[in-house]
Amino acid sequence: MANTYTLISSNTLSTSAASVTFSSIPATFTDLVLRISARNDRAVTNGTLRLTINANSSSIYSFTFLQGNGSAASSNRSPAITHLTDIPLLGSSATNNTFSSIEIYIPSYTASQKKPVSVFGVNETNATAIEMKVNAGLIDSTAAVSSIELTNVSTFQFISESSFFLYGIKNS
Amino acid sequence: MPATYEPIATTTLSTAASTITFSSIPGTYTDLRLVLVITGMSAGNRTGIQFNGDTASNYSTTRLQGDGTTASSTDNNTNPNIRITDVNQLSTSLQFITLDLFSYAGSTFKTALAELSNDRNSAGSVYRSVGLYRSTSAINSLNIMLLSAGTMSTGTTATLYGIKAA
After folding, report:
1. Which of A127, B28, B47, B135 is most buried by a 10 A CB count?
2. Residue A62 at interface with chain B, using a CB cutoff of 8 Å
3. What is the pTM of this model?
4. Which chain A residues touch B116 with a CB distance below 8 Å?
5. Are B22 and B9 in contact (CB under 8 A)?
6. Which domains does chain B have, with CATH numbers?
7. Among candidates B49, B129, B118, B131, which has minimal Cα distance to B88?
C-alpha cells in the first residue's frame, strides 16, 4: 500500500527566525499540505504570515478571504500582490503561550497551470476580537512549486517553538 | 504503522465532461475525502454531488461564504444534490474543492463538510459548507455533476481518498 500522506520536512524553531523555507520539494507527490503552529514578535494581537513560492516575489499572488472575529463576519480581497498574505499569525500582544494554527493546501503543485491555494487559519486566545480566516489564494504561475518561503511583515520574527510541517499527498 | 489515508481512485479528464463518477466505493474506511480541482467550466454553472445515484430531494446544504466584499450565509434544503460551488463567473478560473464525508458506511444520515477556494485575481469566492444526505444506506458511489448544461474542462482532476480510524 502506498504511503499517501508523507512528511516531507519539518522545522520547529529553537530560536526566533525571520523566515522559514522549504526548498528542494520533490515533485513526486500530487498535493502539498503545510501545517503550522506559529507566533511572531510583532506588537499586535492579530498579525499576518506571508507566503511565496519559488522565491518569486513578483505580483503573481491574489486572494479572497472570509473571516470572523467572534462578533462579525466579513470578506475582502487583494489582487496582484507580491505574496499571499492575510494568513492569521498571533503577535506579542496576544495572550501568552498562544499560537496560531494554520493549514495551507496546494493541490496539483507540479501541474503546468495556475496554482489555487486553500488557507484556514485560526487564532484563539480566550480574548475578544480574535481572528478565524479562510482564504482562497491564487498563484499566477505555471511553474512547479519547488520551494515555499514563509516570512513576516517587515523585520519581525517567528518566535521559538513555532513549528512548520510540510506533507506530500499522493493520489496513487 | 497502518496506512490510514489511502487513494481509492483518481480521474483526470482527457476530454471535457459534465460528470465525474466514483463507483464501487469499498465500505472498508471510516471517512471519505474528495479532492477536486476544476480547471474550468461554463460560466453561470454550479457543481453538486449526489450519492448512490439518488436523484431525489434528499440533500441539503448550509454555506458560509465570502466574495471579497460581503460575507453571507445561505442554505438549500430538500435539494437533489449537495451544492459545492457557487455560480461560476469565469469559464477559465480554477476551482479547488475538498469534501470530507464522515461515517459514509454507517446506517445514519451522512454529513459532509465542503471547502471551496476560487480566487480570480480581483474577484473570487470562498466557501465553507456543510451538507446532509438523508439516507441510512452506506454510500457506494459518488457523482460530481454540473447543475445545468455544460462541461468541466480537460485537465480537471478528482481524487477520492479513504481514511481509516484504525
Report:
1. B47
2. yes
3. 0.95
4. 136
5. yes
6. 5-161 (2.60.120)
7. B118
- What the block records as the C-alpha cell of A35 is 501545517
Cα–chain-centroid distance for residue B117?
A: 12
Q: Going by C-beta distance under 8 Å and a sequence separation of 6 or more, which residues neighbour residue B26?
A: B8, B162
Reference A135, options A61, A72, A70; nearest CA is A61
Distance CA B17, CA B158 (A): 12
**CA-to-CA dists, residue B133 to B22, B110, B142, angstroms:** 17, 5, 12
- Min Cα separation A85/chain B (Å): 14
CB A31 within 8 A of CB A169: yes
Write the pLDDT tens digit of every residue in A50-59: 999 999 999 9
The angle subtended at Cα B20 by Cα B120 and Cα B151, nearest 5°, is 50
Hey, is A21 helix, strand or coil?
A: strand
Chain A residue numbers with beta carbons less than 8 Å from the beta carbon of B121 are 62, 79-80, 138, 140
Among the partner-chain residues A1, A30, A140, the one whose CB lies closest to the CB of B159 is: A30
Divide the 166 residues of chain B into consecutive groups of 10 and give the mean pLDDT of each group. 86 97 97 97 92 98 96 95 86 93 97 96 94 98 95 96 92
Which chain A residues have a beta carbon less than 8 Å from that of B119?
Answer: 62-64, 77, 116, 136-138
What are the cell numbers at B38? 476544476
Distance of alpha carbon A88 from alpha carbon B114, whole angstroms: 21
* Cα gap B60→B79, rounded to integer Å: 6
In angstroms and rounded to an integer, the radius of gyration of the C-alpha atoms of chain A is 16
Q: Length of chain A, please? A: 172
Residue A137, all three cell numbers: 489564494
d(CA B90, CA A75): 20
The CA distance from B63 to the nearest CA of chain A, in Å, is: 12
